[in-house]
């Protein structure tokens, strides 16, 4: 599996995830360290669930995630089919 990463915002070199902290079901903070010894920048970034692209087959009723426009349209189309029956 590929690790989610981004370049150092200062020198554009590779960074390494040093640690992470779960903030909520939908958000995690990740501490990154620049691998360029001349830079040495350490920073925190966030990883957040933003929207649903495909509905879960086993949804957690306590989790509320925005639906993408595509999913909203698909749901509206399915509801329209049921109304027409």
UniProtKB/TrEMBL annotation:
<dbReference type="Pfam" id="PF04606">
    <property type="entry name" value="Ogr_Delta"/>
</dbReference>
<feature type="domain" description="Zinc finger Ogr/Delta-type">
    <location>
        <begin position="8"/>
        <end position="53"/>
    </location>
</feature>
<protein>
    <submittedName>
        <fullName>Putative RNA-binding Zn-ribbon protein involved in translation (DUF1610 family)</fullName>
    </submittedName>
</protein>
<dbReference type="InterPro" id="IPR007684">
    <property type="entry name" value="Znf_Ogr/Delta"/>
</dbReference>
């Amino acid at each position: 599996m590929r690790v989610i990463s981004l370049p150092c915002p200062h020198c554009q070199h590779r960074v390494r995830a040093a640690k992470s902290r779960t903030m909520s079901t939908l958000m995690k903070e990740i501490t990154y360290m620049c691998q360029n010894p001349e830079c040495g920048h350490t920073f925190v970034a966030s990883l957040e669930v933003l929207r649903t692209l495909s509905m879960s087959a086993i949804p957690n009723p306590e989790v509320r995630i925005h639906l993408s426009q595509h999913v909203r349209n698909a749901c509206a189309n399915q509801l329209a089919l049921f109304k027409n029956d």
